[in-house]
Amino acid sequence: MARARSPASPRLNRDASRLVTLAQSLNRSGSRVEDLYWEHLLTDAIAKLLRSSQDVPLESALDHLSQKDVGAYEVLVELAETQSESMQIDKDGQRFDVLLIVVPLVAWTRYAIPTGPITTAAQQTLLAHLHGHVLADGVRAALMPTLVSIDQMPRTFSETWQWMQRLGNQALGNDAGQPTLNSEAELTNMLADTRYVVAAVAVPERAAVFRWQEHPGDDTYSREACHAQWVEQVQPTLATMLPGCGMECLLPDAYYVSNREADRRVRPLSLRAATHWLEGTLNLAASELRGVIAGCGENRIDEYRIGFTLRNSNDVYYGCVWPVYGHEDNILDDEDQPSVIDEIAALLKESGVSEVRHIPGILPPEFCEDCGAPLFPSPLGELVHAELPDDADTTPAQFH
């Protein structure tokens, strides 16, 4: 999930400088004993910032390290994610480990993909199957009563921490209130997008959280087996929550890893959905479309943008964004691995788009000044606003 950052000051304040120093010290540590020393100081510093909703020092430190020390950046971002998605809470003299988890639902449709309240019956069913097929015995869980979109998800580490803290306390029977959703409306009605069921789980300190932890090495309780059983049981309930949608239900897991996996899964579905939709909307075959791929970013490629045009036109009718994550940065220059561009081009051709063009270099990630929508590449190498022709048939039709 692309995480929106707080505006970061170009200069590091005291808190940001301390985070940089501690992250670099941990990255250079030569033993586990020294690791533990620096981890303790760094996690305490991060936790203090999260509790007081001070994201700017953390984001400033990350921005600085991403340019100056990639190893220390990875150390700091990993601990920031850990501290914002998990914590320990004392209840009746016992300490519990709390973890924020999500159930990503990758959906595609020509209708609007729903968000909103989850019925009480659906909540009970989801919780029952979480306990039955995913969570370890004795796990306490609290479910957010809303199916949420990416626009409603936390945009900062401290907002994620607040969701985890409130739902974690609910799981332990404490009155903590519901997490606050971000209310910004989605910029476009996406053909393929992700919806999330959010929950927090609590277990006695160092106890197993997931079923596969209780039975290591037993294929009956492997991640794959738990996933298959979970999908089989919850599919009818999810179908009522996302009417008119095709969907892929991912395995419930920790907040950040699940979001990243959902982001990866939705990318190819977005391309296939766009091709199918344009065939119906423009009343033509996919072979009459052209795909234009451009890498976008400031100093490196952070995402690819794909514009769809007719083969005999430079007008961009639709576009998709393909974010680049983590280890994928290292694949870009690896001759033994297919490039991201090759992967995108192959997916477009599998969908019937026979002509694919790549714009060389790196383009700035520009957005429309009026509506905020991302701009997409034309065959001329320019980023432009995607607009359908006036005679396009945009009447809703089910996409599966």
Please report the distance between the alpha carbons of the first and last residues: 24 Å
Helix content: 25-40%
As a whole number of angstroms, the C-alpha radius of gyration is 23 Å
Low-pLDDT segments, ≥5 res: 1-9, 396-400
3D structure, described in words:
This protein starts with 13 loop residues before the first helix and ends in a 16-residue tail after the last strand. The protein is of the alpha+beta class. The protein folds into 3 domains: about 15-85, no CATH class; about 90-255, no CATH class; about 285-385, no CATH class. The chain is built from 11 helices and 14 strands. The protein has helices spanning about 15-25, 30-50, 55-70, 70-85, 120-135, 155-170, 210-215, 225-240, 255-280, 330, 340-350, and strands at about 85-90, 95-110, 115, 140-145, 145-150, 190-205, 245-250, 255, 290-295, 305-310, 320-325, 355-365, 375, 385. About 40% of the residues are buried.
Task: Give the arrangement of secondary structure elements.
Elements (H helix, E strand, L loop, with lengths): L13 H14 L4 H20 L4 H13 L1 H16 E6 L2 E15 L7 E2 L2 H14 L6 E4 L2 E4 L7 H15 L20 E13 L6 H4 L8 H19 L4 E4 L3 E2 H28 L6 E8 L6 E8 L7 E6 L4 H4 L8 H11 L4 E9 L12 E2 L5 E2 L16
Parallel strand pairs: 9-12
Antiparallel strand pairs: 1-2, 2-6, 2-7, 2-8, 3-5, 4-6, 5-6, 9-10, 10-11, 13-14
Helix pairs in contact: 1-2, 1-3, 1-4, 2-4, 3-4, 4-6, 5-8
